[in-house]
Each structure stands twice: as C-alpha cells, then as structure tokens.
Design a protein that fits this description.
The structure holds 2 protein chains of 2 kinds. Chain A is α/β, with parallel strands linked by helices. Chain A folds into 2 domains: about 210 residues, P-loop containing nucleotide triphosphate hydrolases (Rossmann fold); about 70 residues, Alpha-Beta Plaits, CATH 3.30.70. Chain A contains 11 helices and 13 strands. In chain A, strand 8 and strand 9 form a beta hairpin. In chain A, helix 3 crosses helix 4, helix 5 packs parallel to helix 6 and helix 8 crosses helix 11. The longest helix of chain A has 16 residues. By secondary structure, chain B is mainly alpha-helical. In chain B, about 65% of the residues lie in helices and about 5% in strands. Chain B contains 13 helices and 4 strands. A 4-stranded mixed beta sheet of chain B has the order 2-1-3-4. The radius of gyration of chain B is 27 Å and the shape is elongated. Classes of the chains: A alpha/beta, B mainly alpha.
Chain lengths: ~300, ~350
C-alpha cells in the first residue's frame, strides 16, 4: 500500500504528424492528496489525465497508477478509479437515478446509488431526466457516476468549466467532502482560484511540461511574493523598469499590457514609494490596484502570459 | 457503505436501452407505427377489387361517336370524348392510357413504356376490329384468379417485414452507437470496468426483443387485415427473421464501428440500405432487373431475407428449402460482427 497513487516519468504523447501534446512530463501524486493540474487550454492537461486514466496510450514514458500498470492490469485498475471526462453527454432521457444505477452495475463493488446521489446533492432531482438538469447539476451527476464504484483514485477533468459561480461552489463543496474522506483526487483546471482552494499541491503545466510544482502557497511565495501592485500610468513620460525595481519594498517588476505589476512583501512601503516616484516624474495614474498574489501571478511570472486569454 | 451485490450489468444496460427507446417518440414511430401505416396504405392502394377500368380518350370529330360506341362495349375501358388538346393533356398526365383519333384507319396514341398503355391499345384494337365485323375463331374463356397468395399485398408484406428488419437493425445499432460515441458516452463507459461485450450484447438483446414485437405485429396485421397467407411454419419464419435481424445488426455495428458523428453514419446507413430497398424486391420483384445483375442481387442480404420470408409465408417452404438464404444471412452476420469488433473505436 506504500506505492503512490500516481507515478509518471517522462510522459510523452505525440499526435502524428506534428502535435506534441505532452512533452516529457513527470508527476508523483501521494495517496489521500488532492492534486491539481493547472494550465491554460491546450497545455496538455487532458491528454495527461487521459493517459493516467488508461484511455490513451502514451508515445513514451512510464505510468504507474495505484502501483499497477495499464498494460497488464487494466481490468483491475478500472474498478479502482473513477473519473469524469471533460465533456460527457449522459443520456437525455434517463433519470438521475437510472444513470447512477446503470454506472453502479458496471462496477463489481461500490456504493448505493442513493448514497452517491446524496453526496452530490441531487436528491431533489433523483427522478428527473438528465435533459432537465442545469449545467452544474449535470456536472455533479457526472461526479456521481465517478463515485459510484467507490474509487480509491478520482480524476476530475475541468469539473467546473463553463459553470456559474454558485454551481462552481457547490461542486467545490463536493470535492472538499471527498478530500475529507481521504480520497485521492486529481483535477485539471484553468481556474487558479479553484486550484488554490481545493488542491494540496499543484503542478502548473504549459506546453506539455510541468513548469512549477508545489503547494499553492509555496508556489506563490517562491515565484511571486505576497502582494501584487498593478498600475497603469496615464499619458506622459515613460517609466523604466529599473527605477521601479529600485523602489523600497519592491521585489520584482513585470510589464502587464499597458501597465506594470510590482511584486512586494511590504505593501505599506511599496505603495507610498511608488506614488512619490510617479509624482516626482510628473506621471499621472490611470489605474492602481493591489491584490494578494495568486497562482495566476505565478503563471504570469513564469510564462509572461495569462492563464485564460 | 460498500455494497456487494451489484445489479446485473447486462440487465441495467438493456433496461437503459429500452427506456431510451420508448422515451423517444420518433424511434417508436419509425420502428412500429411507420411500417404498419405503410402496410395499411399500400394494402388499401393495392387491395383486391374489380380491376380499375383503363381510361381511353376519343378525340372529337367525324366518326368519334361510332368509335366511342364500339369502345364502351367493354367494361375494362372508361371512355371519354375529348378535344384534341385536352386528349393530349390527359394522355400526358396519365388520366387516360390511350387516345383514339377516329379516321380511316383510326390512330391509337399511347406510351409503350406504360403497361396500361399497351393493354388499352390491345383491348381498343380488339374492340374496333370486332365492331367492324371481325369474327373470333378461338374464343378463349377468361378465368380470373383472386385467391390469397398471388395478390400484390401478399408479395408486399414479406418485403415490408424484411425492410423493417433491415432499417431497425441498421438505425437501431448504427445510429445509436455513433450517437453514443459522439456524446463521448462510449468513452466514458469504456472507462468503467464494464465488459465491452456486455455493451454490444445489450444492443443485440434489445434488437431481439423488439423483433419479437415487430414481427408478430406486422405479420399478424397482414394476416388479419388482408388475409395474407402464412403457409410455412412459424419456427421457419422466426429463424429466417432472426438471421436477417442478426445480419443487419452486424452491418449496423460495422457502419458504426469507426464513424465519429451521426451525419457520417446516416450517410453510410443510407448508402447501404438504399440500393437494397430498390434491388432486393421490397415493392416489386427483383426479377425485373437485367439477368446480368441477378447474381449480385442474389448476394444482397435483403434479397435473401425477402426471398426467405416470401418462400416461407406464401409458398410454405421448409427451413431446408430456404437454407441457402439462411446461410447467406448467417455468413453476413458473422462476417460483419467479426470485422466490426476488430475495428471498433471506443473513444
């Protein structure tokens, strides 16, 4: 039982003729951990999880799931994992309960349909056809089908993409509940707030590689700093990065579109110094804001791009 | 917490298929209502009744009265006196099969590609000759045949049964499987420990179940409403129909094995079914096609199914007598299933 939930070395997935979706990716996910793959669309997250789920064959690399390999133990592994795909259209004219029961019947052992339906808070919709469900309810139903085999390891591929804020929070509650039960969860997302909120550890993926790995707090601390000051100067004389970087309390400077982003650990020093410096140069301010540094800032710092464009 | 006795997977898959079927009114219509409605419509259109009189137009002019009088002597003809232009129009639209232009000799205008035209010409020529004084020397005696088994509806019903078995198999498997793939549900289910054979078996089971409903409904209706004979054994009929259903289920699976979207598979299904609907003797006998085409037509599964059904129902053939058709259907079923399973795409 000491094998990690997932161990993956040098994973490569190439789609002929010339698409390299995953380019040498290493991962290790411990049991009981909620692990996030965070990255923009097209970063290779879905390809990666579909290889881990045994749905795609890797071009190269070594994948071990729950201490076993897809090549030799596929049947046994299928019974021990649960998953949601990025988009699955469950049959329109089956009820929630019928769908869950059908999926339950496909597993040799698992949980009762009513229990799983309660877990994803769909009791009221138990007898409704799936075509009558909202996007969030459908997504929770998809999670129910993933849970019904009582999996040791759960994959959720972009579980909240396209959902409204309330539905997202409801789904987060479901995942938080699973974490509390000590299940291993791997989720992909391009929402940094989702990763920060749910994941014990996060791998930031870009162009098919892991470019940063750690707890959300450690990633932010290592790559950004505590606070970010963003400002846009009005028309007038230009500013140079070096002068901004020399301000007291400022740890780093990035250009962000028309404006600048200053990284600092001491907001109370950096902001007054910035205002004084702008004033001294006769630069007006079109906009100024500060926020606690997030994984989005980490991604910006590492790639110079935003997660979602 | 953990439940040990799972509901049977195959049973649940079959139940899901049945629910999805009857909750979709259009599929119920195409599988059950449509073939019945078609049988009723065609049965009424071609029901046994006194043969309809053939329309004959007599162009107005000198001698028209005499010609018309000669033609009305036979009840097989319905005579109209028309102007020159109206007569031409009536012939073009098929309201009359023949136009007689009085004169010496009278002129008979008709379309030789239409059987009614040729028939009306022969009858009219006969009548005009007799009116002019020709004497018949042989005098053959007509003896009309009306017994069940030789009417159009007797020919039609087995053909419709065959066509229905074909289309429910092709659409019921082919279209539904591709739709499942397009919705990514196939991939989602393949990601469970589901035994893949169970998934395909659930389709086969549902097809068999619906065949057990379709077949008695259509044939029972034909027997009760039109008196279509059922001369062979029910066992032989069921075997032929079941082999036909298996063959078309296999072909349905085959066209569905790689298609990614429903447009593609619809095109494929139509490409497979259309030629057979025309060539395999559904609405008219395939003997109408040139001899050179016959070997190819004999090789089509729908021809085998229709011929087998007709032989059992109308001629009372035994299983042994329809063995060639049964073997062909079984071979199509086995070959298409085997190939489909080799190339089937789960994602």
């Amino acid at each position: 039982m000491t094998a990690p939930a997932i161990r993956c070395r040098g994973l490569v997935k190439r789609y002929p003729p010339d698409v390299l979706a995953v380019d040498g990716l290493d991962l290790e996910v411990a049991r009981g951990e909620c692990f996030g793959l965070l990255g923009p669309n097209g970063a290779g997250k879905t390809t990666t999880v579909e290889v881990l789920e045994g749905l795609l064959d890797p071009t190269a690399g070594d994948v071990e799931v729950l201490g076993r390999r897809w090549g030799t133990d596929a049947a046994a592994l299928r019974a021990r994992i649960g998953l949601t795909l990025q988009e699955t259209h469950l049959p329109d004219r089956l009820t929630v309960r019928e769908v869950v029961r059908m999926f339950r019947s496909l597993y040799p052992a698992g949980r009762h349909e009513d229990e799983v339906i309660r877990l994803v808070a769909l009791e009221e919709k138990r007898d409704a056809w799936t075509e009558r469900l909202s996007g969030g309810q459908r997504q929770r139903l998809a999670v129910a089908t993933a849970l019904v085999g009582d999996p040791e390891l759960l994959f959720l591929d972009e579980p909240t993409t396209g959902l409204d804020p309330q539905s997202r929070r409801q789904l987060w509650d479901v995942v938080t509940g699973l974490k509390r039960q000590g299940r291993t969860v791997v989720l992909t997302t391009h929402y940094m707030d989702e990763a920060e909120r749910l994941c014990d550890r996060v791998a930031i993926v870009d162009h098919g590689r892991v470019i940063a790995l750690g707890t959300p707090a450690a990633l932010v601390a290592a790559h950004v700093g505590e606070e970010v000051v963003e400002f846009t100067p009005g028309p007038g004389p230009g500013l140079d990065d070096a002068a901004l970087a020399a301000l007291p309390g400022v740890r780093g400077v990035r250009r962000a579109g028309e404006g600048f982003a200053l990284v600092t650990e001491q907001l109370h020093l950096a902001v007054p110094a910035l205002l004084a410096a702008l004033d001294a140069r006769g630069v007006t301010l079109a906009a100024l804001s500060t926020h606690r540094a997030t994984l989005e800032d980490v991604f910006m710092a590492l790639t110079g791009r935003r997660l979602r464009d | 917490m953990t439940e040990r006795h799972p509901p049977g997977a195959l049973r649940q898959l079959v139940l899901a298929r049945i629910r999805l079927f009857y909750r979709e009114p259009s599929t119920v219509f195409w599988s059950f209502v449509f073939p019945l409605a078609l049988t009723v419509a065609l049965g009424i259109a071609f029901r046994s009744r006194p043969p309809e009189a053939l329309g004959v137009g007599v162009v107005e002019g000198p001698g028209a009265g005499g010609v018309a009088a000669a033609l009305v002597a036979d009840r097989e003809l319905r005579v109209e006196r028309l102007g020159e232009a109206a007569a031409g129009a009536a012939l073009r639209t098929g309201r009359v099969a023949l136009v007689v232009q009085p004169g010496t000799p009278p002129l008979l205008r008709f379309d030789p590609t239409r059987p009614e035209g040729r028939l009306a010409r022969a009858v009219a020529a006969d009548l005009l000759e007799r009116a002019a004084g020709r004497r018949d020397v042989v005098g053959p005696v007509p003896a009309p045949v009306t017994e069940p088994g030789s009417r159009y509806v007797d020919f039609l019903l087995p053909g419709l049964v065959g066509m229905n078995v074909m289309s429910t198999g092709m659409w019921g498997l082919g279209y539904v499987i591709v739709e499942t793939r397009q919705k990514r549900l196939l991939k989602r289910m393949a990601a469970t420990p589901m035994r893949r054979g169970h998934f395909l078996l659930s389709f086969a089971a549902v097809r068999a179940l619906f065949l057990a409903i379709e077949l008695p409904t259509l044939i029972g209706f034909g027997v009760l409403a039109f008196g279509v004979p059922l001369r062979g054994s029910l066992v032989a009929l069921a075997v032929v129909a079941a082999l036909g259903a298996a063959a078309f289920a296999g072909l349905g699976l085959l066209v569905a094995s790689r298609a990614r979207n429903t447009q593609t598979v619809s095109g494929l299904i139509n490409a497979v079914m259309m030629p057979m609907m025309l060539l395999s003797g559904v609405f008219f006998s395939s003997a109408n096609f040139p001899a050179a085409l016959q070997p190819a037509i004999r090789g089509l599964p729908l021809t085998a199914l229709n011929d087998g059904l007709r032989a059992v129902m109308i001629e009372g053939a035994t299983l042994l007598q329809v063995a060639p058709q049964c073997l062909l259907l079984a071979a199509v079923a086995a070959g298409s299933f085997a190939l489909a399973l080799r190339i089937f795409r789960w994602s």
